Amino acid sequence: GAVVSQHPSRVICKSGTSVKIECRSLDFQATTMFWYRQFPKKSLMLMATSNEGSKATYEQGVEKDKFLINHASLTLSTLTVTSAHPEDSSFYICSASSEADTQYFGPGTRLTVL
Amino acid sequence: GESVGLHLPTLSVQEGDNSIINCAYSNSASDYFIWYKQESGKGPQFIIDIRSNMDKRQGQRVTGLLNKTVKHLSLQIAATQPGDSAVYFCAENWYGATNKLIFGTGTLLAVQP
Is B12 left (phi over 0), alpha (psi -120 to 50) or beta? Predict the structure, then answer.
């Protein structure tokens, strides 16, 4: 149980384009989903927290107009990187949580912006 | 600010030995902690959690220890196997306006055959 999927697993795009990443909880309803960013050999940095049906809460320093988050259902959240630039290249990871505290993580999406 | 940190960035052990990964936390109000394992190119995998009303949480081959007096966490892995090689993160559940996890910097566990 507690499986979280992400799609795509890796994406390469041109600078200036937008990229959407999906996060799904496959076998449970996620009241809260989280989006993280991870640079090579570094820890996970929380970008934003989203609750189903409400606006995401962004961490300090994260541009909400740059990283659009939608949490339209209890099993799906999306992160859209708008007008992507090479510095946005990173490993993006989502996690999902039900009413309990534990977060279950997706496999991550490797974004490369050329 | 408050943070969770690790004492050892890299730990090298022989296959079959026991491993101990340590973590210090600074927020005395934290009452829930989780250990995650992350293999290269993959998302973190839940290993074990421990609440502040526990000193010890026993898993199949892993044990989580909590010392609230000195704000210290440990993850013990018995009979370490090559498949245990990964980066291990401790995380502190930060209660506030929204629940969120604060991750430590990570420890790379390298198991030598």
Answer: beta
Interface of A with B (CB under 8 A): 2, 4, 6, 32, 34, 42-44, 46, 49, 51, 57, 91, 93, 95, 97, 101-108, 110
Measured distance CA(A25)–CA(B100) in Å, rounded: 18
CA distances from A84 to A22, A111, B103 (A): 16, 10, 26
Contact A107 B106 (CB under 8 A): no
Report the sign of the C-alpha dihedral through residues A23, A29, A33, A37, in that order.
negative
**Residues comprising chain A, all counted:** 114
3-state secondary structure of A87: helix
CA atoms within 13 A on the CB side of B18: 8
Interval A41-80: pLDDT, tens: 888 999 999 988 888 999 999 999 999 999 889 999 999 9
B33-71: per-residue pLDDT in tens? 999 999 999 999 999 999 989 999 999 999 999 999 999
Residue of chain B minimizing CA distance to A42? B105
Q: Which residues of B touch A102 (CB under 8 A)?
A: 34, 46, 49
- B99 with A97: Cβ contact below 8 A: yes
Identify any residues that bridge with A23 across adjacent strands, giving them in sequence order. A6, A77
